Amino acid sequence: MNLLISLRGELLKTKRTASIYLTIIAAAFGPLMTMLELLLDGFDGEDQATILEQLFTSKFQMTGLMIFPFFIMLICTLLPQIEYKNNAWKQVLTSPQTKANVFMAKFINVQLLILVFLVANQLLMFVGAVVLHVLHPALHVLNQPIDGKRVFAILVNNYAALLAICCIQFWLGIRFRNFIVPLAVGFACWLAGTILGMNFPLGFAKYYPYAFHMYPNFSQYKAVVPAIAWTSLGYSVLFLVLGYLDFRRRRMDT
Question: Quick one: which of 223, 220, 224 has its CA closest to 212?
């Protein structure tokens, strides 16, 4: 049984869970809060000509700093828990597929949901732009210019920076039967990383994976974002390999 067949099985199992609804709800939170902020607080005169640009750049900051990391921690924990919840690990591992295929199919499934999150977030933000254009036609929101390369770079940099957390949480999600343990570890590390990144952004925080989400969302750290992305990628490979080695040697009794 090849990897594509294993991945198809994971996708079918995901359809029977609330994962896709969680993804859409999480993706919608940032755009919804942004729209409420703009509609209730109004628009600064000097920023009215760049509203569309702000929606997809600076307004992504809340999503990048809080919602995206929390979503990754949740989805990387909940998806690997399907077999624990259904007592199906023995059934999965006795099927004609290797442990490597099972492990990678689950990991790719997580990445696909992350992609859905990012695409849904951007589409919903565009819907918000349409709403603003209709409610405030004098602002000509949809006629304003937007730097597509900058928007794409923000999304890619946020994904790359959080890839290390994704691999760590994915390993923890498979490693522990109790889903509270990975979530508690992830939240504690994220909180520590946020505090560390706020106080020592150019010190140890540059090497602490749970602080990486800080860098793509603040313009003053633009120069170090490429280094953060490569460091995150290095951590990702390390923890993905360690996670697989741990998964391969373990015996799943349920």
Answer: 224
pLDDT single digits (tens) 80-111: 777 777 676 777 777 777 888 888 989 999 99
Tokens, residue 12: 């079918």
Please state, in angstroms and rounded to a whole number, the distance separating the CA atoms of residues 77 and 210. Answer: 16
- Judge residue 210's burial from the number of C-beta atoms within 10 Å of its C-beta, 0-12 exposed, 13-18 middle, 19 or more buried: buried
What are the distances in angstroms from CA 94 to CA 47, 91, 97? 60, 5, 8
CA separation for the pair 40, 244 (Å, rounded): 49
pTM of the entire structure? 0.90
Torsion angles phi and psi, residue 210, rounded to 5: -80, 5
The C-alpha angle 231, 237, 240, rounded to 5 degrees, equals 130
Integer Cα distance of 118 and 133 in angstroms? 23
